[in-house]
Amino acid sequence: MHKEFHRLISLDKAIELALGDAPRPRVRIVNLESALGRVLAENVIAEIDVPHFDRAAMDGYAVRSEDCIIASESSPVRLRIVGSVSAGSIPDASAGPGEAVEVSTGSAMPEGADAVVMVEYADAADGYVMIRRPVHPYENVQRRGADLSLGERVLSAGTHLGPREIGMLAALGMSRVKIRSLRVGVASTGNEIQSPDEHLMPCKIYDVNTYTISSALSQIGAEPVVYGVFPDSYDALSESIATALIDCDMMILSGSTSAGRGDMLYRVVSDLGELVFHGINLKPGKPTLFGRVGGKHVIGLPGYPTSALTVFWQLVSPLVHRSLGLRSHHFSLKATLARPFRSESRRQMLPVIIHRGKAYPFDRGSGAVTTLGASDGIIDVPADREYLHAGEVFDVHPLSGDDLDLIISGESCPVLEAALDRMNLRFRYLVRGSMRALTDLQDGLADIACITATQELPEDLRVVASYRRELGLISRNPDLLLNSDGAAFAAWGRDSGVGCIMDSMLPGVRRSVEVRTHTGAALAVLQGKADLALGAREAAGMWGLHFRYLADDGISIVARMDDTRDIIKDIADALKERSQDAAVST
Amino acid sequence: MHKEFHRLISLDKAIELALGDAPRPRVRIVNLESALGRVLAENVIAEIDVPHFDRAAMDGYAVRSEDCIIASESSPVRLRIVGSVSAGSIPDASAGPGEAVEVSTGSAMPEGADAVVMVEYADAADGYVMIRRPVHPYENVQRRGADLSLGERVLSAGTHLGPREIGMLAALGMSRVKIRSLRVGVASTGNEIQSPDEHLMPCKIYDVNTYTISSALSQIGAEPVVYGVFPDSYDALSESIATALIDCDMMILSGSTSAGRGDMLYRVVSDLGELVFHGINLKPGKPTLFGRVGGKHVIGLPGYPTSALTVFWQLVSPLVHRSLGLRSHHFSLKATLARPFRSESRRQMLPVIIHRGKAYPFDRGSGAVTTLGASDGIIDVPADREYLHAGEVFDVHPLSGDDLDLIISGESCPVLEAALDRMNLRFRYLVRGSMRALTDLQDGLADIACITATQELPEDLRVVASYRRELGLISRNPDLLLNSDGAAFAAWGRDSGVGCIMDSMLPGVRRSVEVRTHTGAALAVLQGKADLALGAREAAGMWGLHFRYLADDGISIVARMDDTRDIIKDIADALKERSQDAAVST
């Protein structure tokens, strides 16, 4: 019944096996407007000169340079103006000896003229122009083909098309372009998986991988074909894969790849074609499989979102790059590990939060989408490293280019959130108890900590703002606010400040759903998951719920003593204004 | 007739004026599949717990942890298997004292059980399972809401949606999402501009800016609306802009922005609305204008492609970022200036080639698309710097993420190009004379130089490969190969090796179109721009043209003495193989 992975192979071996025979892309013709981010399928050779005529590069007068050799401020040369050429027009005048033709930037040069005198050095009057400076041959003229010359290789097959490459193609008059197209089918498997457009049934979870993987494929220039959730039965899965491969060059599935019961992808792939490997000695990512069906690659990624995306970047992305003929870019940045980390004896892709140049291991488990959402990058920990020291410098493979202004750690507080929103700050809020928040602040992960005011502070920290918020009962039913006998309360975790207050003020009440934030407390009430919740007045206000004041709650915002940045001061100011507003409104 | 820019303002002032009143984006609802790269318009709060049930995190047996406290390898605990729960199913068994329920990763936890014993530590037989290790409460269980908790702020308005953010939305069951949409009309003006899908008329050039600017807008999350070429007459331009602004939130035009004759955009904008500034003290980018029509931003960029894209990144990109509520990212990298550079006394955006950590000023003029295509980045040179020294370190704003394997400088050679293509190398070929190529090689811009074999080498350079190629006459008409009297020849530049050979072997022939490459020589013949061309046999072969051998031409591939990289050796080997092939085939 229980099947082990028979041979775990290394990631390097897995990449070698997968890349050995990368799928051949198709060639498609697309309009220039749709070419951004795609990969060029052919060498582009200039079939015209650019420009394809000698072109004035300045506004002024087209002249014979030999006429102007002796021109100077003190003795200007006088030329007769015999016509003018506007940009885009075919010249109807030519410049004979002693003659000049008025031109604009971009005009075709008239016959006879070989230079342009800038308008700044020429005074025109009564059909003549006085030239005050000499010009040398071809001065201020962009010669035919000077930019791109007939036959020149302009772009090579395999080029990633960005704005400037698209501009080159436009300059050559190519309104359509051949690109490499790799159609990759994407599906999730598992009876517990539901599409996000359905109502969530009990014991099910929403499909994440289809969306992360197809977005990531788009980012690297492949064409995802989204199939959503494939049924998790042998026959249905076989048929779905076989059908999808008619239309796709490759297939990426996730889930159903471990070796346990009900995980049948490896059997399906073995039976439809050839299973090349099953199981990588990597954390996360062990349950990865790779095979070929009808000569096409089928990759099975782990079901956990973080694992799936990690293996995607490590294994699938190089494969797609190879297939499209792109070089794999291993963008990486250096970061100092902020906290020690104990690894396992296999290669590990360690998710980290990057903040102000330091890397903080962050792992709520690869099953958590939070790990996916909060990790800014990944450190590749070799199999032979057991203990990573704080202060060691590692290469980090970044997962996101977004910079945060601020990381807050500590108690949930809608007052603080609202202030940060008003300041238009990009922040991440790590909701956790006050003690843990102070540690986060001390080791630099957090910029400010939001703690209950009673907390004693270590020497290296300082309070930058303090305010009071009103805690009370939140309910849909005003009667319950007065008599809550038997009502189900939203339960706060005991590591939160509100959790402690709840224990002391409302001991022994019946508890239902657990919440971590004030907004969550109010939502639990709104959705009927709890009859009552303890929470801040602001949270009740978000959905117009009834509120009964019980007590004031003191909050302190804490920063490091040595952190004198403006942003800290600005937050303190924003919260002070709030205190004053509150004082006025009472 | 000639109008000067009245008040040039600084780039910083221009940015301040433009950003002061950034356009408000619309809010659109898109499917998750279309959300990649877009900007979130609302704070996303979890309206469900994720997972929304206690979930087995491993394959194994759901148990009451208290039953297993004493379990060990030597004295396992025996539990009765009372059922099994597959992932996605509602449990139909519960775990009473002394009982276990079989579960898979992702299964809902059955009533009564609070931990999962991994299958590795459990042996099942005859309806019982022997547990060989203790588990603590909630071990191997992902608790309801542990990942995302009801009410938790998951993403903030203004977040740039990448794969992982899209995954978070999917996990919450959001198949549609509100994004910020900024519709930006893009058009070029100028009577000399033609759309790339038309046949090129005399004295016209193809529209580049519409395509570079609209691609760049897509890259930063705006929605370009492509209008192509607007007519360059006052009435038509006024009407086109007014009509476009009905549908768009903002308009970007290029061309017609300088102060010369025929440049009327500033008049149109003044008359339709308000001209805020016209002219920035920046090189390139002086003829930039900014105004408002009906309260909407109208930006006029310079007509030259490099100038237009440079001002786009400096001025428009921050404006779009501000409008969408994104932080402007000033990604920059450090590079050492490889060659001294003399600047002007105004702020200058200097295009550079980045190669192996060094920055090489590269400027064929902002009118050249080559400048656009070859520049990997831009150095912002302050107005007060006149002379930049080689070796100084500057911040470079990168224009492309593509890495080159190789830069070649020197004589055009189809033999070398073909060898590099076979090696699947990403290269840039700077076609220039042998002398210049050796300088490029010495100062590190080029990795190899392709020179005529007769050249003497400086001490620090070495020949890594030599080969002979056959030069001859190329024609569509075989008769001309024997009697070329009066025929028009494609003209090679005199700084090229083939140009010198042409001067000595074919003195006094009539010359038509000028060419820089062998492919160009053959194309000139194919297109009838020349009757005959001197070129390599390989070039004639590309289009099946007739070829008459005239002489052998010796080519040397040169590298730096101290450059011992494998890539140099590989190129040498690839060219040696070719010599042997050639020897065999003769």
UniProtKB/TrEMBL annotation, chains A, B:
Keywords: Molybdenum cofactor biosynthesis
UniProt-listed CDD domains: MoeA (cd00887)
Residues of the MoaB/Mog domain: 185-322
SMART domains reported for this sequence: MoCF_biosynth
UniProt pathway annotation: Cofactor biosynthesis; molybdopterin biosynthesis
Pfam families: MoCF_biosynth, MoeA_C, MoeA_N, PBP_like
InterPro entries linked to this entry: MoaB/Mog-like_dom_sf, MoaB/Mog_dom, MoCF_biosynth_CS, MoeA-like, MoeA_C_domain_IV, MoeA_C_domain_IV_sf, MoeA_linker/N, MoeA_linker/N_sf
Keyword Coiled coil: no
Gene Ontology biological process: Mo-molybdopterin cofactor biosynthetic process
GO MF annotation: an example: molybdopterin molybdotransferase activity
Gene Ontology cellular component annotations, sorted alphabetically: cytoplasm
UniProt cross-references to PANTHER family, sorted A to Z: GEPHYRIN, MOLYBDOPTERIN BIOSYNTHESIS PROTEIN
Name of this protein: Molybdopterin molybdochelatase
Organism: Methanothrix thermoacetophila (strain DSM 6194 / JCM 14653 / NBRC 101360 / PT)
